[in-house]
Amino acid sequence: MRGRVAALALLSLGLTLTVPASPVRADLTIFQTPTQTQTIESTQTNWGPGTVSLLGKDPFTIQKFDPTKITLPPGTPPGQKAVLYEVVLSLKYEFQNTVQMDFIDRATATVTSSGIMHLMINGVHVSNSVLDSVNSPGFFTQKTLSYPDQLKVPHYLDPVKVVSGTSALGYFDSTTLNIFTGSGTISAPVIATAASSYMTSSGNGVGGSSTFASAALSVTYYYFIAPEPSSFALMGLGAVGLYVIVRGRHHRKGLETA
């Protein structure tokens, strides 16, 4: 009997120390916090943290997931708390690119332009990839024209090309979840860069491109309700206490028999 109780006590305590609350049950209920969204309006690249025209907008400031500020569902047993399950980062982006060429005499010219956007967390990337916290969006465009064969006037202004979309990733790993858990805020700088090049055959001319970009970052937390570690510890200590009581009773019986 003592062996079985001792085993139960040690097993309970062992589970307390080695098995943290984990979202593995099929009946686990996942809750969602309100989505935090911040926006940078269309601004000429290049920009990033500290850019004068973006002061107050970049880096974005996101409230961390604070378990003490989560309202638990009605009827939740005592000793429960909210545990962060997943962080979803969503970057909505847009590039507006315009190509321009000016010819002085007969020539064939090519303008190549490209751009890219990066999202970081607290100044460092939180994903396992080399570069970004979401898949880095970008664009590439190239325009080749000849004057006067294609163009009858020595000036060309390309209609604005718009490249837009959303890049999103969800994180379940403990390293990222720890970064987003706690009180206070976390910074999320967004960096947009663009470049262009101009090539021409024999002849003279100039060309290039102008790029504007905008960004909207959305962060959503998903969480579940689980017993606090202290509750598990009390269960383990209770099992040990039960073993001590039972052992004491058997010890007294042995003395009376003797």
Chain-wise SSE layout:
Elements: H1 2-18, E1 31-32, E2 36-44, E3 60-63, E4 80-103, E5 107-119, E6 138-147, E7 155-157, E8 161-171, H2 174-180, E9 185-188, E10 190-200, E11 205-227, H3 229-257
Antiparallel strand pairs: 1-11, 2-11, 3-9, 4-7, 4-8, 4-11, 5-6, 5-10
Explain what the structure shows:
There is one protein chain. By secondary structure, this protein is of the alpha+beta class. Helices cover 21% and strands 44% of the residues. It is built from 3 helices and 11 strands. The strands form 3 sheets. Strands 1, 2, 4, 7, 8 and 11 form a 6-stranded antiparallel β-sheet that branches. A 3-stranded antiparallel β-sheet has the order 6-5-10, with no helix packed on it.
Notable characteristics:
single chain; about 260 residues; alpha+beta; six-stranded antiparallel β-sheet; about 20% helix; about 45% strand; rod-shaped; disordered N terminus
Order of helical and strand elements: HEEEEEEEEHEEEH
Total of DSSP H or I helical runs spanning 4+ residues:
3
Rg over alpha carbons? 31 Å
The coarse silhouette is: rod-shaped
Using DSSP, what is the number of strands? 11
Quick structural overview:
With 258 residues, the protein is of the alpha+beta class. 21% of the residues lie in helices and 44% in strands.
